[in-house]
Write a structure and sequence with these properties.
This protein is α/β, with parallel strands linked by helices and 479 residues long. It folds into two domains: 347 residues, 3-Layer(aba) Sandwich (Alkaline Phosphatase, subunit A), CATH 3.40.720; 65 residues, Arylsulfatase, C-terminal domain, CATH 3.30.1120.10. The strands form four sheets. Strands 7-6-4-3-9-1-10-11-2-12 form a ten-stranded mixed sheet, with helices on both faces.
Length: 479
């Protein structure tokens, strides 16, 4: 009997000890089963320049926290959003569907209040995760409608702290805050449905709220959509950043942008550090991306001096600079750290990925896919055979190394017509190969036409800048 117990002990010890006498054997992410119902944190920057962060070669100001986040997980080098503009891009991420499937093509500028915003028949990622027992929260920018029915707490979010419009002031003073007013005001911050009177810097306030949300829901899985307004205009500089701005940055607008970038980087560092300090980092899947490319084109109402090099184009265009964004996926211990993933991915994939890991079946027809087996190496094939875009008269399709694009030159007030680029050799989209490869132009353009057959006409029209030929509406313009 004693010998049997001794043998059993030896076998148990062998099972838990590493194969070598050195450090414990590493856990391969592809072999590890993801934990049931991880926390899900989506951090969304606003109009972030592709080239302004250190991991993409930026160095005008340091972004150590964003760079560390990229190094902690997988950096997707071909990460895209589904639109080059704020509201439609967010509508795509929130639903896992191309927003043109349900007519949300432009920012909700002009039209009937009851129709402006994410259509009410569309379910959000918050709707799905809440059915799985998640606490759900949105902090920051909404931009998916202004009516009570479009409010975040009507769209799956238990908690809401933020603003409803497309942009917001950063420097807040209680005495300047309105007691009431239009939901379209750039001065209003809401907690739930109630206007708040606050002092502070919005990036810090949103970070404080995020940490509070995480702590309040320590006993259950949570989903937090942390939507900073940084680095969108207005380019306001908080005093605490003035000494950190480089002397070489003399343009006041650029200095304002860099201050917002410093604030964003600090904020991301605070949230990640809090997760690590409380031990929740191992339970939390983090996505970081921007809603569209940087707004570095003059004249443009949201011009913020962002740099997208080596990409061509900016916010509002279907060139790479408008739709390819910083895109990181991090779950410590569950995937290889410090790696890159070069296949095409898109923000539409966030919903099906989060739902799969949470054990939720969203139902309906999604355009996004579950990225997890691709990022961990379980599946070697590309997540998408093709990606597509439509933004007013602008179009694009990406297949492998090839991109066919018809983009808008806003200065010339005209479209380019179909142009073909080999992004493996020409990431800057400078060498148009359409004349050399007419058969490929035909093939890809026909593919785009087939995809477009499932899209709807816009539920509301855009501004002339977005939607040339749109008739001016009598309703007031909203951002």
């Amino acid at each position: 009997m004693r010998r049997s117990l001794h043998l059993l002990f030896v076998l148990m010890l062998a099972a838990v000890l590493p194969a070598s006498a050195g450090a414990p054997a590493p856990v391969r992410a592809a072999e590890a089963e993801p934990r049931a119902k991880p926390n899900v944190l989506v951090i969304l920057a606003d109009d972030l320049g592709y080239a302004d962060i250190g991991v993409h070669g930026g160095g005008e100001v340091r972004t150590p926290n964003l760079d560390a986040l990229a190094a902690a997980g997988v950096r997707c080098t071909n990460g895209y959003v589904s639109a080059p503009y704020c509201s439609p891009s967010r509508a795509g991420f929130l639903t896992g569907r191309y927003q043109t499937r349900f007519g949300h093509e432009f920012n909700p500028h002009v039209g009937e209040e009851a129709k402006l915003g994410l259509p009410l028949d569309q379910r959000t990622i918050a709707d799905h995760l809440r059915t799985a027992g998640y606490a759900t929260g949105l902090i920051g920018k909404w931009h998916q409608g202004f009516s009570p029915a479009h409010h975040p707490q009507s769209r799956g979010f238990d908690d809401y702290f933020g603003f409803l419009v497309g942009g917001h002031n950063y420097l807040l003073r209680k005495e300047a805050a309105p007691k009431f007013g239009s939901a379209h005001s750039h001065d209003l911050i809401y907690r739930g449905r109630e206007v708040q009177k606050l002092d502070g810097y919005t990036t810090d306030l949103f970070t404080d709220e995020a940490i509070g949300f995480i702590d309040r829901h320590a006993a259950r899985p949570w989903f937090l959509y942390l939507a900073y307004n940084a680095v969108h205009t207005p380019l306001e500089i908080a005093d605490k950043f003035r000494d950190r701005l480089p002397a070489s940055a003399t343009d006041p607008a650029r200095r304002g942008y860099l201050s917002l970038l410093l604030g964003l980087d600090d904020a991301v560092g605070r949230v990640v550090a809090h997760l690590r300090k409380t031990g929740r980092d191992k339970d939390t899947l983090i996505f970081f991306l921007s809603d569209n490319g940087g707004s570095g084109r003059k004249p443009f109402f949201a011009y913020n001096t962002a740099l997208n090099t080596p990409l061509r184009g900016d916010k509002g265009q279907t060139l790479e600079g408008g739709i390819r964004v910083p895109f990181f996926v991090v779950w410590p211990g569950r995937q290889p750290a410090g790696t890159t993933y070069d296949q095409r991915v898109i923000a539409l994939d966030l919903l099906p990925t989060a739902c799969a890991l949470a054990g939720v079946k969203p139902g309906g027809e999604l355009d996004g896919v579950n990225l997890w087996p691709h990022l961990t190496g379980s599946i070697a094939t590309a997540p998408h055979a093709e990606l597509h875009w439509r933004f007013g008269p602008q179009r694009a399709v990406r297949r492998g190394r090839w991109k066919l694009v018809d983009w808008r030159d806003f200065e010339a007030k005209s479209n380019s017509g179909w142009q073909l680029y080999d992004l493996a050799q020409d990431i800057g989209e400078r060498n148009n190969l359409a004349a050399q490869r007419p058969e490929l132009v035909t093939e890809l353009s026909q593919s785009w036409d087939r995809w477009n057959e499932k899209n709807l006409a816009p539920v509301w029209r855009g501004t002339p800048n977005e939607d040339p030929g749109a008739h001016a509406a009598a309703a007031p313009l909203r951002e």
